[in-house]
Structure formats: C-alpha cells, structure tokens
C-alpha cells in the first residue's frame, strides 16, 4: 500500500490502529470476519463487543496503541519501496491464504509483486559446510535463471547463500521472510545483503516495526516461507534443524518437499536423509526439481502473472462455488473440498472486500 493518496493513508492508519492493539491474531481475524473491516470493528459499541467476545477483548479495543507507534509506521510507509499489504489488498499473496492463520498485514520492503510470482524456498543449516553453501548458491542461481523467485529467511549459512545465488543470476529475484520488524536486519552482518534483496525482490515481515529477534518468531516466519513457495528444498540440516519445521509445514500445506543427500558421515546430512525416508524427493540437479512442475518447464511459463482478477470474477473458484444463493459453511466445504481452516482463511478477504457477506445462521452469499 504505497501512500500516494490521502485515502491510502487513512486506510493504512485504520489497519495499523487495529492490528497494533493487544489482541491475539486469531481474535483479530474473528473480529474482522464478524464486522467486516478495521473501521467497523473499532466503531462497535463496547457492550456489543463485550457480549460477543468477552470483557478482555472489549478492554483491548478500548485501549488504542500508542499514537507514536501508528505515526512511526505511517512515516515508514511514506518512504520509497515501503509497503503495507493487507488481506483486503489485491496484491496480497494468494498462496498465504492456504494458512489458517494468514497474517492480516504484511510489511514489505521492495517490490510486493515479487510475492505473487512462482517461487521455491531454499532452507538449511546456519553452520553449513562449504559444500552445502555452494550447493545452495548453485541451485538458487539455476532456479532464478529459470525465472523462479527464491524464498528464504535471511539467516546465516544456507539462507544467505540462497539469496546470494539468486541475486547472481541475470534478472534473479529473491524474497527474504524475516522474524523481526521490517525496519530491522537480523543478523546485522546481512545489512548489505538485505539492501540488495530489497532492490531485486522483497523483504517481508508480519511483525510490527521495531520488533526485535526472538526465538519464537522464527517458527512463525518459517510457515510464511513454506506457504509462499510452490516447494521447499532443504540443502543441509541436522535432525533438530528449524529447516525441518519449514519442510513439515510445506508438506502439511500440500507443497512439494525436496532434499539434497549427503555423506552418511556428515551430521548435517541426517536431516535431509530423514526427509527423504519420509517421502521428500531426492534431488541432485535442478531438473530433478523442475520435472515435478511441468507447467513451469516450457519457455515463457514463468512470465510474471497478470494482476489478479477482481474478486467478483468468475475465475475465482470460491466465488464460483458460492453461486448466487445463500449457502452454509458445511455445504461450501463440500463443494470446494477445502478444510474448515483453509475455507475460513479464503472467505475472510472476500468479506473484507465486500464480495461476500455473512448472513444469519452462518450462511454466506456473494454480493456481485
């Protein structure tokens, strides 16, 4: 959301005012689903909120965030290449809607359009071997040369090598999903790398500006890495590596998981070998990975996509499943084959956009 117009600034202010309040993200999503927009939530009489959501939620809504936090974020958004993507934005990456807890807002430095392009995640050990680092660079560069965006987490080791490999390709694009506020770089030694990523891709965070690095932030970051990509490649990983969390999340989302094998004497190969035993595809070359995606193999298949159609377009499968008559949630699950969590995550942005309304009795109806 570049703040080119006064109305953009006011919309950003509403989202910031709402999301920066001390409410769990799950409660924020329920409030938006119930009332439709941040402005509508904040305009609700407190007795109404208290009756439906309890006293703690009402108290949190009655306590606005520090004014300086909102103004600082708005000032940050006024700088070049700084963006706020919300669930109501057409540019919000559709792949993230597969998450039951898709972030309500994303802070982005760089080109938000990069988040919607075909992507592969490359993750692995922070203390990787020289061979592992070289593999990460080589695979990332080759994939970027084929037009894929390389997604990783800006960490030491394999993550940094993957970003560097993608940037070494002509026209290569890469995305760094971080576990701090978008105004911070962690680790600090990657500041120059982060600047290059923002110029040739994007840095993205769901955490408010100023958020420091905390251990529990990185598993949350990993789910975004897994969701943004069509598949995840693990280069080197110990059996207890956080990279295996990303691979597990990718598998749970129905994404492909790939692993590079290594020496049986290398402790950092054990995580990859475990993944292969559990069903990950063993890869030795880039073509081993790309043959899983024949739609991306032909020349021109990776041309950046056209902007997403408006939510009312019949090409949206969820709107097509809704039809034009009221339908209950269970029937919609049956028509789409989606889980309840995935269906809820996909309905919310349509409600926020006004393309779908929730009717009494838990039914839904499209409005156009």
UniProtKB/TrEMBL annotation:
<dbReference type="GO" id="GO:0009294">
    <property type="term" value="P:DNA-mediated transformation"/>
</dbReference>
<dbReference type="Pfam" id="PF02481">
    <property type="entry name" value="DNA_processg_A"/>
</dbReference>
<dbReference type="InterPro" id="IPR036388">
    <property type="entry name" value="WH-like_DNA-bd_sf"/>
</dbReference>
<feature type="domain" description="DprA winged helix">
    <location>
        <begin position="304"/>
        <end position="362"/>
    </location>
</feature>
<protein>
    <submittedName>
        <fullName>DNA protecting protein DprA</fullName>
    </submittedName>
</protein>
<dbReference type="InterPro" id="IPR057666">
    <property type="entry name" value="DrpA_SLOG"/>
</dbReference>
<dbReference type="InterPro" id="IPR041614">
    <property type="entry name" value="DprA_WH"/>
</dbReference>
<dbReference type="InterPro" id="IPR003488">
    <property type="entry name" value="DprA"/>
</dbReference>
<comment type="similarity">
    <text>Belongs to the DprA/Smf family.</text>
</comment>
<dbReference type="Pfam" id="PF17782">
    <property type="entry name" value="WHD_DprA"/>
</dbReference>
<feature type="domain" description="Smf/DprA SLOG">
    <location>
        <begin position="84"/>
        <end position="293"/>
    </location>
</feature>
């Amino acid at each position: 959301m570049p703040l080119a117009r006064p109305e953009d600034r006011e919309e950003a202010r509403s989202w910031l005012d709402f999301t920066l309040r001390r409410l769990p993200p799950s409660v924020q999503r329920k409030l938006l689903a119930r009332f439709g927009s941040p402005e509508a939530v904040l305009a609700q009489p407190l007795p109404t909120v208290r009756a439906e959501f309890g006293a703690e939620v009402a108290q949190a809504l009655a306590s606005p965030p520090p004014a300086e936090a909102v103004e600082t974020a708005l000032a940050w958004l006024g700088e070049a290449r700084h963006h706020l993507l919300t669930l109501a934005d057409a540019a919000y990456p559709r792949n993230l809607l597969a998450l039951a807890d898709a972030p309500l807002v994303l802070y982005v430095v760089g080109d938000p359009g990069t988040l919607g392009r075909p992507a592969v995640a490359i993750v692995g050990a922070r203390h990787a071997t020289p061979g592992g680092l070289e593999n990460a660079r080589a695979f990332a560069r080759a994939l970027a040369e084929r037009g894929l965006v390389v997604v990783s987490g800006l960490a030491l080791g394999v993550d940094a090598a993957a970003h560097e490999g993608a940037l070494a390709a002509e026209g290569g694009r890469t995305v760094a999903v971080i576990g701090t506020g978008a105004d911070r770089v962690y680790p600090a030694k990657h500041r120059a790398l982060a600047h290059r990523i923002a110029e040739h891709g994007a840095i993205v965070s769901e955490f408010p500006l100023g958020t420091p690095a905390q251990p529990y932030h990185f598993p949350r970051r990993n789910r975004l890495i897994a969701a943004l990509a069509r598949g995840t490649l693990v280069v080197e990983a110990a059996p207890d590596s956080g990279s295996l969390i990303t691979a597990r999340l990718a598998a749970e989302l129905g994404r492909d998981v790939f692993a590079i094998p290594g020496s049986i004497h290398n402790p950092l190969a054990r995580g990859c070998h475990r993944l292969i035993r559990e069903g990950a595809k063993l890869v030795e070359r880039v073509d081993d990975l790309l043959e899983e995606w024949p739609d991306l193999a032909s020349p021109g298949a990776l041309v950046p996509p056209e902007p997403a159609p408006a939510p009312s377009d019949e090409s949206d499968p969820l709107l097509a499943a809704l039809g034009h008559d009221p339908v209950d949630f269970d029937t919609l699950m049956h028509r789409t084959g989606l889980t309840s969590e995935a269906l809820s995550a996909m309905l919310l942005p349509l409600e926020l956009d006004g393309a779908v309304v929730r009717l009494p009795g838990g039914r839904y109806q499209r409005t156009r």
